[in-house]
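Morning F.,

Quick status update on the modeling queue. The single chain you submitted on Monday has been processed. Sequence for confirmation:
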Amino acid sequence: MSDNTRLEDLRRRIQQDPASIAFAQLAEEYRRAGRHREAVDTCRGGLAVHPGYLSARVTLGRALIQLGEFDEAESELHIVLQSAPQNLAAIRGLAEVHHKRGELPEAIAQYRSALALAPNDPELERTVNDLTQTLAESVIARERRRALAVLAALEQWLAALHVTRAQRRA
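Structure tokens below.
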């Protein structure tokens, strides 16, 4: 079945039964097709009727991430994790939110939580290793800049000290 045929079939099912949980499938299909705004709108409409449907909240969170709406995505994913603390998709989504915000320690912690649930996932292992290395390099670079700033301040102090001594001798 082609993607468009599947989308049309799901839309028809929802039109026939607006209370159908098929909205979650439709939203996920929209998200996979890169139609993130439609995925968000579909999820929000369906969640108004089925607020406890966690997989739809994950889809909503993932679509919001793609739209750059990180605060809303984080909120949706936290709702999922309150009810299902080991929901791998929600944990990965939350990790991605932190990663995209540049919050590397938080991202690494979430990716490690995901890796604990999926220990044989090479992509997760690679992500954790890459982010850990990036964070370490960032810390090293920050410490180097700090040390150079201290050194520059000491050099200025020494130069001022030499000028003062030269003035006293004169």
